[in-house]
Amino acid sequence: xxxxxxxxxxxxxxxxxxxxxxxxxxxxxxxxxxxxxxxxxxxxxxxxxxxxxxxxxxxxxxxxxxxxxxxxxxxxxxxxxxxxxxxxxxxxxxxxxxxxxxxxxxxxxxxxxxxxxxxxxxxxxxxxxxxxxxxxxxxxxxxxxxxxxxxxxxxxxxxxxxxxxxxxxxxxxxxxxxxxxxxxxxxxxxxxxxxxxxxxx
Length: 201
Description:
- By secondary structure, this protein is mainly α.
- The chain has helices spanning about 15-25, 30-50, 55-70, 80-100, 110, 120-140, 145-150, 160-165, 175-190.
- The protein is about 60% helix and about 0% strand.
């Protein structure tokens, strides 16, 4: 990439689409900046699926490999953050399918089903069954809602600022979007005979 180098510009204001184009043309600095901006988000997506650290690392590595493979063919390079988030989600689900795991609940405000410490086997079985039903409903949400909710909950939750950067959306729209996604989830759950606790939106 000729002329002015990436390092001579302010990274935070370098447009994402230009970073993708430059990286596709072999600019190592542009690629490093993409990784710097989005690595935390990719990791958070993987960990939001309750993957182990080793599995999350594998998902992250595979996600970046997929970007390398598609770098010159991404139709909307300005939305590469959303592309990475979706790819990381798909890779996480693939790992879970291979391991034949059930995704446990992680959003206390929405999926709260009470403590299962010192409960009977019957109660634990009912709780596990309800968790499975809730996640089946969750998976009916639009992919963007799933991503936003996953990235805002759990131990690896992103800040609104980081989420706004990752998904290329105005920071002021994240709260209302999250609230709409939660309400959508509650409506889907209710229609399936599952009543979720009201939590802060």
